[in-house]
Design brief:
Helices cover 35% and strands 12% of the residues. The chain is of the alpha/beta class. Bound molecules: 4'-deoxy-4'-aminopyridoxal-5'-phosphate (PMP).
Length: 353
Amino acid sequence: MKAWEENIRRVVPYVPGEQPKEDKLIKLNTNENPYPPAPGVQKALREMNYDTFRKYPDPAVSGLVNELARWYQVQPEQVFVGVGSDDVLAMAFLTFFNSKKPVLFPDITYSFYKVWAELFQIPYETPKLDEKFQICREDYYKENGGVIFPNPNAPTGLVQPLEFVEDILNHNQDVVVIVDEAYIDFGGESALALLDKYENLLVVQTFSKSRSMAGMRIGYAIGSPALIRALHDVKYSYNSYTMNMPSQVLGVAALRDEAYFKETVRKIITTREKAKVRLRELGFVFPDSSTNFIFARHPQCSAEKIFLALKEQKIFVRYFKQDRLSEYLRITIGTDEEMEALFTFLEKFVNVR
Ligand code: PMP
């Protein structure tokens, strides 16, 4: 090894789902929304004045912050916006997890948490989910340097009731508790209802799933003004102009179309519930999803074989070759037609074996 190489930080990066280049495929592997963004977003895009690209964007993202504050009926001082919730979560790790005690998150969860903890050299522990993939609340009663978990959890799809989230908060009043609600619009009750009671609570959400805007990279956190101020201080110590101008403008347009948002979320939930019935008929078993994906296994069929066979048909689902997960496929809910194509193939595959 050369001397300069010794000073390079070595990390194992997060591996995102595949983004194949071809057009004609059914993409059920990265929990994207199968429907386009709200029509108001297209209109705002058409009307955008490209001359404004000369200028730096608003570093405070005020337009979007104010619109989010209105939507959630909080103060603008309680809102932080970032480039996707990944950016918001990374900033939150950097800002709030500075203890020598370990940060706690489940062993099976969003795999980026571990990557940020390693990158920022934050000690962490990963209490095991039980055999039904449930988070054991007692694991989060011990001393720690902070707590983070997604609700609903990913990739299991399981949601916890608000009472459970409040119990975790009750037992962790001396550290920051982050609830990652990337999928909350598809089921479950948001921890936003607890904001008034717990100033150490940070709720993180995204436009990537329920608002069909993964490509625009818009995420946000809502919490007490003290938490949001701390996040801003770290952000401005790192990069002031994170969110580009089009994302700021189009994010506002997406929020203004409430009817479209509700309708697409409703369609996805309906398709998901139908998918549960079909998958059960085919012999799949899965935790009961409250998200826009289903984490399923087939007791008689290898998940890896199904994954590869589907890929040959240009149907992409997500497969994790990892301990405790390798028997499962994570299937994003697509349109009814896309799901029908999936089931038609699975019917043949599962029965022919
Ligand atoms: N949290 C969870 C639990 C996720 O599954 C994802 C999607 N990969 C994210 C956060 C990040 O999403 P985004 O950066 O697109 O907002």
